[in-house]
């Protein structure tokens, strides 16, 4: 354990009341908050914060540290706003690429294609002869070059256990290069080169270091794919795990009873700062790709089916996990998907009792009023990523997401305020690498509903903006509650974890459009300083 750490001349902000505690000193000992008097033991480190604001450690409610570190090793296309820009970035990358090597890219926004199809041909000849795999921003789809398709043996449509997975083909049955959902994308991933274990460890360690510097002390990791768990174990052994991670392995259609039983058995496994806790499922894909599950088709006649070909099987699995005490997090974007998840939880509670299990729905991009009202009654948390709205949709609804839905459904987008007003616990996060992980930026987006890259733009549905206190609770109290840890995390209280974020300004009074630029002076996890700028 680390020596005592004493923070003096501090303003201690309670995210429950929004008020400052009547203390200016905080003593951290053995990974806990020990008191508010300067009675530290021998060898204690004393830091004068000069009036800085201390909040409970910020926790991202939805991220993918290891898989994200791997995905973002390629060419960053997230800043490209049109096809010309995409082609220029790819052409520059191809010029630097050794002959025969794969080109990887990420962050491709379908809006750059305008009225053209999302296809390899639309990108133009820049990728001719180059094996390339480019993740679209949602990480539910990939654009593969002709050469990549050839190496993967993809020459026509395929059938998958995932209901919304698809090798998109033209009317002649020829693959366009667009692959929808993991099962289809994995066809290319299987033949593309992957980093070795040490490369993955180094990339993940760097990502986690930057997350700590941004003020994060924890995160709910929504996958345990590949070598993720081994990476976390190795980084912790090396002293390179600055975040506390709660990990939910995937449960996919076709999961066997034995695999489900093994997931239940492994709950609680892990180390000091990482552990398996819960399960991640998918009820649909994404609106941008036409793979969401909507109660009425989108404007292209798509988004009509569930990720689980038999939704009743999903309901049965939720019941099994609930009975075993395993909390679930389900990706559900469309109104039909969200409704089915809530129906499944309601059925599980009716059959097995409510118990202490806390389920959650991830994303919730468009839902009607009657669905909003059900979250609080069922005790289901709403896990939302407001920057998905602010960065990838537009207030005038000219973006791909809004045009697919039409005005009625686009006008009930990302209903953070409505869910909070209805009594739901609203957990905030980034879904990194889908959107930037900086927590102050996400909280700012939740408040001003504008794209962070251009705050001059009008807000998207400003009536859904969260208050400053609601946004702060979304990164402190809400993630602690959904994890069943409200008695030990999320507030500056004696006996609570010594996970703290120290800010240069009061996050509740700084203007919404300035919050993202507030300096993070200190990040503390388990009483250990993981980032210092003071």
From TrEMBL:
Residues 45-530 form the Amidohydrolase domain. Pfam families: Amidohydro_3. GO terms for molecular function: hydrolase activity, acting on carbon-nitrogen (but not peptide) bonds. It comes from the Bacteria. Signal peptide: none annotated. Keywords: Hydrolase. InterPro entries: Amidohydro_3 (IPR013108), Metal-dep_hydrolase_composite (IPR011059), Metal_Hydrolase (IPR032466), YtcJ-like (IPR033932). This is Amidohydrolase. It comes from Kitasatospora cheerisanensis KCTC 2395.
């Amino acid at each position: 354990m680390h020596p005592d750490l004493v923070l003096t001349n501090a303003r201690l902000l309670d995210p429950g009341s929004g008020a400052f505690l009547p203390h200016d000193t905080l003593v951290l000992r053995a990974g806990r908050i020990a008191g508010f008097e300067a009675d530290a033991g021998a060898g204690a480190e004393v830091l004068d914060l000069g009036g800085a604001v201390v909040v409970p450690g910020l926790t991202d409610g939805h991220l993918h540290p290891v898989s994200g570190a791997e995905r973002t090793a390629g060419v960053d296309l997230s800043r490209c706003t049109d096809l010309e820009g995409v082609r220029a970035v790819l052409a520059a990358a191809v010029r630097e690429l050794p002959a025969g090597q794969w080109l990887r890219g990420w962050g491709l926004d379908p809006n750059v294609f305008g009225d053209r199809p999302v296809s390899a041909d639309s990108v133009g000849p820049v990728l001719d002869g180059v094996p390339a795999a480019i993740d679209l921003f949602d990480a539910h789809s990939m654009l593969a070059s002709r050469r990549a398709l050839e190496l993967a043996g993809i020459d026509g449509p395929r059938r998958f256990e995932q209901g919304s997975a698809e090798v998109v083909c033209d009317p002649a049955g020829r693959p366009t290069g667009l692959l929808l959902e993991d099962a289809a994308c994995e066809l290319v991933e299987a033949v593309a080169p992957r980093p070795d274990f040490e490369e993955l460890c180094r990339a993940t360690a760097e990502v986690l270091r930057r997350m700590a510097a941004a003020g994060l002390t924890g995160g709910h990791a929504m996958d345990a794919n590949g070598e993720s768990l081994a990476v976390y174990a190795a980084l912790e052994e090396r002293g390179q795990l600055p975040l506390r991670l709660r990990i939910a392995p995937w449960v996919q259609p076709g999961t066997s009873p034995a695999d489900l039983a093994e997931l239940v058995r492994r709950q609680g496994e892990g180390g000091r700062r990482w552990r398996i806790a819960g399960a991640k499922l998918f009820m649909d894909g994404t609106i941008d790709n036409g793979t969401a599950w909507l109660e009425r088709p989108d404007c292209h006649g798509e988004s009509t089916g569930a990720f689980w070909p038999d939704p009743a099987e999903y309901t049965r699995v939720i019941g099994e996990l609930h009975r075993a005490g395993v909390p679930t997090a389900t990706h559900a974007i469309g109104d039909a998907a969200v409704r089915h998840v809530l129906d499944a939880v309601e059925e599980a509670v009716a059959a097995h009792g409510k118990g202490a299990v806390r389920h959650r729905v991830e994303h919730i991009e468009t839902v009607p009023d009657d669905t909003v009202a059900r979250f609080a009654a069922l005790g289901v948390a709403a896990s939302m990523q407001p920057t998905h709205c602010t960065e990838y949709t537009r207030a005038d609804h000219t973006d791909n997401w809004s045009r697919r839905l039409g005005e009625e459904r686009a006008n009930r987008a990302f209903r953070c305020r409505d869910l909070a007003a209805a009594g739901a616990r609203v957990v905030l996060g980034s879904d990194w690498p889908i959107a930037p992980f900086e927590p102050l930026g996400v909280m700012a987006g939740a408040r001003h509903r504008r794209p962070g890259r251009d705050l001059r733009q009008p807000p998207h549905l400003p009536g859904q903006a969260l208050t400053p206190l609601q946004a702060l609770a979304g990164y402190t109290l809400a993630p602690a509650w959904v994890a069943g840890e409200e008695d030990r995390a999320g507030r500056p209280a004696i006996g609570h974890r010594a996970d703290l974020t120290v800010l240069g300004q009061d996050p509740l009074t700084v203007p919404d459009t300035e919050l993202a630029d507030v300096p993070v002076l200190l990040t503390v996890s388990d009483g250990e300083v993981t980032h210092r700028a003071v």
